[in-house]
Amino acid sequence: MTPRDCPCHSRLRYAACCGPFHRGAVPPTPEALMRSRYAAFALGLGEYLVQTLASAHEDATDDPRAREALVHELARAKDGQRFLGLTILSATENGSAGEVLFHARIFSRGRDQSFAELSSFVRENGAWKYAAGILVPGEELPSDLAALTPETVRARAG
User: Fold this and answer.
1) pLDDT at residue 61, rounded to an integer
2) 60-80 in b/e burial notation, b at 16+ Cβ within 10 A?
3) Which residue stretches of the chain have pLDDT < 50?
4) How far is CA 36 from CA 18, 24, 52, 55, 123, in A?
């Protein structure tokens, strides 16, 4: 079932926001790709999530069986989870590299599983791809999310 409102919480309709990317359009910025990946997690679009991984990502594989298992695993990520909000804290791009710092509000089986992540993106063959992320678990988030910056996330990661 296609949602009316976009699961990335942009306040736009799905058909005008992440829907075109899920149907094959190329996200023009790292932020657009990040939003579309969040929406893909919410909708269980495992194939899209695998297609948008950078070739150097640790989960990227050419093995058809491993790839299919990953698609299936990512498609099931939505089961038992509610995706309640996405806040972009910063987004930058510099040539073929980009970063997006975001806060995701997710509940799983009644428990708050919210987190922040500083995601890294690379442009491969003209399309942005998800390369890696530095996760900040919910229990480690500052009470004021404005205090969270790419620099503070990198410093926490060591």
Assistant:
1) 85
2) beeeeeeeeebbeebbebbee
3) none
4) 5, 11, 10, 18, 16
pLDDT at 33: 98
pTM of the predicted structure, to 2 decimals: 0.93
Amino acid 102: pLDDT: 98
Give the closest residue to 139 by CA, choosing from 119, 110, 111.
111
* 82, β-bridge pairs: 107
Residues in the chain, overall count: 158
DSSP output for 12-39: SBGGGTTHHHHTTPPPSSHHHHHHHHHH
Domains in the chain: ranges and CATH:
14-157 (3.10.450.50)
Residue 95 — left, alpha, or beta (φ > 0 → left; ψ -120 to 50 → alpha)? left
Predicted pLDDT of residue 1: 64
